[in-house]
Amino acid sequence: MSTVKDLDTRGLRHCETTALGVLLRHQGLDLSEPMLFGLGSGLSFIYWDGKNMGFPFLGGRVKPFELTRNLATRLELDLVVEETTSPRRAWDNVAAPIDAGQPVGLQLDSYHLDYFGTKVHFGGHVVAMYGYDDHNAYLVDTDQQGGAVSTSLASLAQARAARGPMTARHRSFTLTVPGKAPSVQSRIVPAITACAAAFLNPPIANLGHRGIEKAGKLVRTWLQRTDHPQRDLPQAALLMEKAGTGGALFRNLYRDFLAECAELLDSGHLRTGHELYAEAATLWTAAAALIAKAGESGDERCLAQAGTILDDLSRVEREAMRALNRLAAG
Description:
The chain is an alpha+beta fold. The protein folds into two domains: 2-30 and 78-176, Cathepsin B, Chain A; 185-329, no CATH class. It is built from twelve helices and nine strands. The chain has helices at residues 15-25, 33-39, 66-74, 87-99, 153-161, 188-200, 208-218, 222-225, 229-241, 251-264, 268-297, 300-325; strands at residues 2-3, 43-48, 57-61, 78-82, 104-108, 125-132, 136-140, 148-152, 172-176. Strands 1, 4, 5, 6, 7, 8 and 9 form a seven-stranded antiparallel β-sheet that branches. β2 and β3 form a beta hairpin. It is globular.
């Protein structure tokens, strides 16, 4: 058996920030989950409805692994990423750092993991791995999934080799903090303004504030979009509130990030952004509840109400990001 010693195996609310927390705490850098999410410019929005999708998906963050790359760049961390099509090499890429006493991040499809209660394919899931023996791999996942958990080596191999939306080729990664730990306070404004600029200027109408406005129009048609509204609408709402989002489609995490930043920086723009994201978080939870109720009752009025809330959210979040974007001007 090979195990990384003296590891803090706390599970957090979101998978990627959970893994980042494990890797960075082992390096002596202990940041809150909202700070990890915010410094990684993690907040976003996408309305996704492809031809092969059974039902639309509302996403509240940047694409998988972009948060990790953003955080590493912003904090000047040494990020080493390995990808391969060879299962044998993929295992070596994981075993070697663990044998040397360093935990490893993995991107995989959560469907194949033994401990996962909900069997849904999600190829953008991220965990930290800190040990293995002849039969099992020892991982850290979100608190919701159990924190420190184990899965069979066979199931881990399947999860890492999976192909499909958001999957990666046996991706593994390590993070190393430079000799002198970076000043977090000096990285806050660049992280916030980069996130705001992307949100305010999306390249397509499905993203950012434009995507929320589009969702406000289309969510009203969701009862006609599916043959199984009692299944699909409550599941969509569940993905918004649970499923590792921290609640309110990641807006709770970003609200808390901005609150933490406001204690470090004296800025009216920052306080405005925090107040508006506190409002947005409440509205997202209300919208999710109405979507679930529509699926359970078949009442289109619930979706009309949810659409109106999403219209409001597009405005509220646009105002919030405009205020936060002004941080760049000092």
